[in-house]
Q: What sequence folds into this?
């Protein structure tokens, strides 16, 4: 008893020390990234997006480079990001400056090769995307996957955002199954109760 | 003590596979047996309680998906979690009466099977309100704790009742841990093997706990038996000698004892903490450490799965300490375990490294669950007349504690979950200090020795008025009081009173001179 207590205290101290050890990793801060990319998000025919549905509608994302400076990028990743309105009271979507901890952009659109001519992609919204207000952001990443430049379709995450309507996930077959099983549950319970009463009455009568 | 039975028909003495006492309650536990009636009742009761925990905490490991589907905010999630444990506050109180009226077999089967539609309805919710209502109604099923304890108490004799109760309650609580592994796995199955979109897959996952409710309910009805000698309905005729006590009287003695309310709070900060953590821990690991759903669920499940040993161990530890130090030892061990739990909760909130957090969580779970077991090592001694109501009130306290803790620390967006954990740990430490106020006149308290003028008989019989004592209604309490002498501590097993052994008969002690003592 005494030994195991000492052991657990020792383990706890060891764990605490480990916990205090800081991570030595290169941090990429969003605020320090050069805003060298210009990103626009429209409907495939060029009109501005108002409301789109997942699983049915597509959006057209275009990105271009607006600086003559050399950017050491090899790929461009475009992502769907939450507008401020959809981040309220939802800490799991919070914006952090350290890009390793940032949760603003959780959904990938495409990864394309970096060229100074720019690029575009037509993206059909995946059914797993939740209903919220979004904008599009592009990151230029180098060969190691570290972000070196960025750009987004909304200046402040409030203006120029669009609404995505999600699927509900419900089907008629689920509704029917729920109804049938619920009736079965309650019905078999009362059926059993009544049958047992009848059986006992019969036993008493015999 | 043989009483000649005047029976015209000679009934065969039933043969039991376990040694039994005069009430046909088992004197030992054979855990791998399913024999009728004792072991089967134990297994059915923990399985039914397990199923209810499975369904009540089926939503938390899937919250990262559900919150996206239903567009929930942190406040919505927090309120639904509170609702999930507040429903059973009333249902636990009522379950004691239901068990008295129709027996624990029907009590638990009714609850489980009527609750099944609520579990299935979770597949149909579209918004935060529906989610909250569903979790509220599913939470009612946690009242199976009362029927579980009631059933086990009917089947096992007082000496091993603590261990039997600890096993039944502990293995039932396992459901809260198992569900954190099972639900993400079922979700994964629906998502990948059956190619459903995520927002449909989680809805389909809820058919598993719902079906489990139906299956287990039918098993309880078909295989279960209320009492060692038969079912409640057949025993009703034989209960001429058993007194139906007045509910008001019983409630009075439970409610007016300050110890009841202290344990209400104490269980609120041991079991209540366990319920709270079951609700928040998977989401905590998913969000703070960036794990995927299955990994977060597996880690979170470790919390609930420790119940397989820690809760029975807490009860067993309480029994061991009582042998040497009596009730005062039980109080000290409870304080130690619960305070350690509070400290480790603070440590868990402070850990920002994944391995350290997991280690802290595991030790935290062991201490908190052992404290739950230790609480029920003491609660049966608070009152004999009002035992059922005291157990029901303590059980409610667990839920109220969880509601309060979640409302205070885990619903607001103004601080992170890890800060909430630290505050919860501090609150545990503060509430645990209340144990100092627990005082049994015949055995003492943590810092106070027993009063020399009060004996166990005085304490338990004082719950009956002189008039009731004249009618001999207090005799069961008297038997219990004599058995309870073991709580004085320092006893060798040879002199501890055996209900069948050499204790003085009730007639021998006489019916005179009972002082009314307010405790």
A:
């Amino acid at each position: 008893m005494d030994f195991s207590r000492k052991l657990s205290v020792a383990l706890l101290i060891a764990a605490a020390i480990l916990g205090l050890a800081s991570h030595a990793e290169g941090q990429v801060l969003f605020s320090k990234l050069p805003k060298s990319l210009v990103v626009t998000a429209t409907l495939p025919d060029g009109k501005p997006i108002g409301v789109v549905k997942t699983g049915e509608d597509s959006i057209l994302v275009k990105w271009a480079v607006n600086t003559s400076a050399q950017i050491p990028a090899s790929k461009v990743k475009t992502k769907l990001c939450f507008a401020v309105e959809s981040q309220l009271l939802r800490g799991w979507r919070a914006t952090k400056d350290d890009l390793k901890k940032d949760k603003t952009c959780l959904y990938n659109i495409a990864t394309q090769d970096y060229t100074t001519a720019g690029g575009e992609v037509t993206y059909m919204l995946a059914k797993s995307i939740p209903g919220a207000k979004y904008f599009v952001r592009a990151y230029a990443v180098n060969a190691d996957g570290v972000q070196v430049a960025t750009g987004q379709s909304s200046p402040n995450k409030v203006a120029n955002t669009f609404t995505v309507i999600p699927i509900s996930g419900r089907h008629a077959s689920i509704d029917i199954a729920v109804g049938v099983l619920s009736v079965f549950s309650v019905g078999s319970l009362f059926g059993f109760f009544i049958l047992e009463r009848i059986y006992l009455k019969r036993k008493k009568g015999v | 003590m043989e009483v000649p039975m005047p029976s015209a028909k000679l009934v065969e003495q039933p043969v039991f596979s376990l040694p039994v006492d005069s009430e046909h309650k088992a004197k030992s536990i054979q855990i791998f047996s399913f024999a009728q009636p004792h072991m089967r009742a134990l297994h059915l009761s923990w399985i039914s309680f397990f199923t209810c925990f499975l369904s009540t905490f089926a939503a938390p490991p899937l919250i990262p998906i559900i919150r996206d589907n239903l567009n929930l905010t942190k406040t919505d999630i927090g309120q639904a979690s509170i609702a999930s444990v507040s429903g059973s506050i009333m249902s636990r109180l009522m379950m004691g009466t239901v068990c008295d009226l129709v027996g624990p077999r029907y009590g638990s089967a009714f609850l489980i099977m009527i609750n099944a539609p609520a579990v299935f309805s979770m597949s149909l919710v579209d918004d935060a309100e529906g989610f909250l209502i569903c979790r509220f109604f599913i939470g009612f099923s946690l009242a199976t704790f009362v029927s579980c304890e009631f059933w086990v108490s009917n089947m096992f004799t007082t000496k091993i009742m603590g261990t039997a109760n600890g096993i039944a309650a502990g293995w039932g609580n396992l459901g809260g841990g198992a569900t954190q592994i099972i639900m993400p796995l079922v979700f994964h199955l629906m998502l990948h093997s059956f190619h459903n979109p995520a927002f449909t897959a989680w809805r389909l996952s809820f058919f598993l706990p719902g079906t489990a409710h139906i299956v287990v309910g039918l098993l309880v009805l078909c295989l279960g038996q209320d009492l060692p000698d038969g079912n409640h309905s057949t025993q009703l005729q034989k209960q001429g000698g058993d007194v139906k006590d007045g509910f008001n009287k019983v409630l009075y003695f439970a409610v007016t004892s300050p110890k009841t309310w202290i344990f209400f709070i104490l269980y609120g900060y041991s079991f209540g903490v366990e319920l709270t953590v079951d609700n928040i821990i998977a989401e905590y690991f998913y969000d703070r450490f960036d794990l995927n759903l299955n990994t977060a669920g597996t880690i979170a499940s470790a919390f609930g799965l420790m119940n397989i040993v820690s809760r029975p161990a807490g009860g067993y530890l309480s029994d061991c300490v009582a042998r040497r130090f009596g009730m005062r030892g039980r109080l000290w061990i409870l304080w130690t375990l619960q305070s350690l739990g509070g400290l480790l909760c603070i440590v868990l909130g402070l850990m920002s490294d994944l391995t350290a957090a997991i280690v802290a969580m595991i030790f935290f779970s062991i201490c908190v669950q052992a404290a739950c077991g230790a609480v029920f090592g003491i609660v049966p001694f608070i009152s004999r007349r009002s035992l059922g109501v005291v157990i029901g009130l303590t059980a409610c306290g667990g839920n109220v504690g969880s509601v309060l803790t979640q409302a205070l620390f885990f619903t607001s967006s103004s601080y992170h979950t890890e800060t909430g954990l630290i505050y919860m740990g501090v609150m545990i430490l503060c509430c645990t200090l209340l144990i100092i106020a627990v005082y049994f006149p015949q055995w003492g308290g943590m810092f106070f020795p027993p009063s020399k003028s009060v004996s166990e008989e005085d304490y338990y019989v004082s719950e009956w008025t002189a008039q009731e004592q004249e009618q001999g209604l207090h005799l069961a309490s008297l038997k219990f009081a004599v058995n309870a002498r073991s709580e004085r501590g320092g006893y060798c097993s040879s002199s501890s009173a055996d209900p069948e052994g050499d204790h003085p008969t009730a007639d021998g002690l006489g019916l005179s001179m009972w002082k009314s003592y307010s405790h």
In short: Chain B has three domains: 34-227, 250-454, 456-487. Residues 242 and 417 of chain B are 52 Å apart (CA to CA). Chain B touches chain A through 51 residues (CB under 8 Å). Residues 237-243, 492-519 of chain B have pLDDT under 50 and may be disordered.
